[in-house]
């Protein structure tokens, strides 16, 4: 039991220490809101591009491709989305809040927390599998989030063509596609070019987690207490229990299982706040969902890692 506890601590504590450092940065006002916005844009457009490119370029198809994992993930995402839609549309009548809640329940912080969690448990060489999954999951997150936020805004502005264009302009998707192209075709990237890409890729997760902490904003929680309880319980307890329990009995193990844990048990994606704000949803509810699920996930993620360690999953 002590060994399992140590593994869980080593996997979780570094993530939240980095987030805590970011909160300290914000508290000490080392970065203004404008500077944080610019740094976030840099991380999104440069750091994640390099990380996705490098992880795809340095892997092999046999290592990264997991058809069974891919099928289970996509099925799990849409089944959980349908169940969430039934619950949310039953308990909440305001469309703006419905959109924010559905996005919070559906869209996890897989990229920011998932990759470092896999690395903490298995090492950097295991990142090929979650990187491949990001290339699949990220477009689903983006397109489905836009669809629901636009639909519940009630203005009928959803456009499949515009959504696909937005997804294909995502630096993570571009980086993954380019990395896969170079890997499949066997084109060698010269070492003087690959070295800075590798250096940026290696520091992407810690920098992103630090800025994540610095970006947190606390809103009025009491006004949305019921909805926030639903989001926090659904995102961190109910959905992981259903999906990970099913994955366990279906025989998923090792890095495949931890990748699923990172997709379905991590808190709400930070990007959900900005998207809710831009598309006329309940941005305050979206922001509080990010803050609270991130805070409580320090406990729930530890629990899930510890539980499945004890069960011998990884």
TrEMBL record:
Keywords: Cell membrane, Membrane, Transmembrane, Transmembrane helix, Transport
Protein's name in the database: AEC family transporter
Topological category with respect to the lipid bilayer: Multi-pass membrane protein
Localisation: Cell membrane
GO process terms (BP): transmembrane transport
One GO cellular component, as annotated: plasma membrane
Pfam family, one: Mem_trans
Hydrolase listed as a keyword: no
Transmembrane segments: 6-27, 39-57, 69-92, 104-122, 128-149, 170-190, 196-216, 228-251, 257-276, 288-311
Family under the similarity heading: Belongs to the auxin efflux carrier (TC 2.A.69) family.
Record has Nuclease as a keyword: no
